[in-house]
Amino acid sequence: MDQTTKITNRVLRKRRNSMIATIVCLSIVGVLILTTVLLAVIPINTGARFSSAPDSIHLQIGSTHYYVEKDNEATRDDYNKVWNAYLASGNPTVISTIFGGYAGKGMVAEHSNSTTSFSSLESDDTAFVIEFYWKDRQTMVNGNGSTFTYMAGNTEVTTPTTFFEAHFVVTNENVVQDSKILLRTTDTQSGTQFSYTGVANYYGLYNILNQMVEDDKFVPGS
After folding, report:
1. How far apart (Å, rounded) are the C-alpha atoms in residues 75 and 90?
2. 133 or 2, which is more confident?
């Protein structure tokens, strides 16, 4: 083999190796881009979820309020706006949870030895109080869907805890944060020891509610 042929073969090998390296690098970059895109669009559930949609929703800000019902034609559209915005508030993308510092967080069912009053939610006239109502009782579950149990003293209570109302506050803060939702378990109670905590951003929901206020759908009353 003459010298020219050796040089030619050496150049061809270098080009082939360079091409293989380029293809490998482009493949890796492509996978990273695809992964980033998927993480940016795939949602993950971090908010409190219920086994069924509420039958009606009571919306209140200050001394004004607005009732919307799922089966009432007059308020059904507003009901759907509120309910869908609530679901979206606790449904960020995977990449948002990573960079937001709340990856791995989600709904937590809780029991407290102290009682929290429902009226404590109404202290801020610039925030909305939302109350979900169900005709049929809902069963408390953990974030993984298992039945919620809790300790009463030294005894574990394994009997399912049921509720029929859920109360929480919506502010105009455009931030992702822990949201505590108080659960009413008996007809006579003014407060509760049971709650859900979820990670959510209610800013979109707040804007929808505020638009309803501007449209004069909220009326004075309790």
Report:
1. 24
2. 133
